[in-house]
Design a protein that fits this description.
It is a single chain. The protein is α+β, with helices and mostly antiparallel strands and about 220 residues long. A five-stranded mixed β-sheet has the order 1-3-2-4-5. Helix 1 packs across helix 2. The longest helix has 17 residues. It starts with 14 loop residues before the first helix and ends in a 6-residue tail after the last helix.
Length: about 220
Amino acid sequence: GSWEIFGRGVHSSDLATIKQQNPQFYQWYMAQPVVSLPRDGGHARGATHAAVMIVEFSDFECGHCANFHRSLDAVLRRSGQDIQVAFHHFPLDSECNPKVSVPFHREACGAAVGAECAGDQGKFWPYHDLLFDNQQHLGRQSLIAYAAQLGLDVPRFTACLDDPEALARVKADIQAATALGVDSTPTIFINGRMLKSSLEPDALSDAVTLARATPAPH
C-alpha cells in the first residue's frame, strides 16, 4: 500500500494531467480505502471549512514522519489556502502504545506528551516543528529546553510532563488510530482516503489535487 514502490508525482494542478502522465499514481491513490473519521481530538490548523482535510497520525521519533512533515510544509506553502491539517499521536513504543509489543522509539511517548503540554500553552505547532527538527534529542531535558526556547512557563510545562491527563490525550489518539486500522507511521487521511505512506512533495501535491476533485465523505 505504500507509494514509494512507484516513485514521485508529477506536480500538476489538474486531475486529467495526473491521470495521463502518472497513471500508476492515480490508480494507486484511487485504490486506497476511504473511511469516516472522528471529528474530535487532535490539533488542527488551516481553514475550518477547507476543501481538503489532511489528518495525520504520526510519531516524533519516526524518520518517515519527519520527511512527511517537510513535504507537508512545502505543499502548504505552495497551495495551502484551502487545506486544513489535523495532527494525532501514534508513538511507536510499547511504553504508551499497546499496539506495539516492544520498546522501539523510546523517546516517542515522552515527546508526544511534551507536545500536548506545549499545546496547553498555545504552542503546539511551534513545538511540533522543533521536535521534528531535533529528532535525535527528544529526552526529558531536551523537551524542557524546547519549552524554554519557545518562551513557555517552564515549571508549568515540567509539571505537565508528569500529568496523567496529558498522557491520556496521547492514548486517546492511539485508541482512535487503532479503531481506524492505523498500524504504522505516518498514516495520513486526505479527505478520508487512507494513505500509509510518506509522500514526497510532488506526490503529496498530486494527492491534494485528486482530493479536491473527489467529494469528501460525510
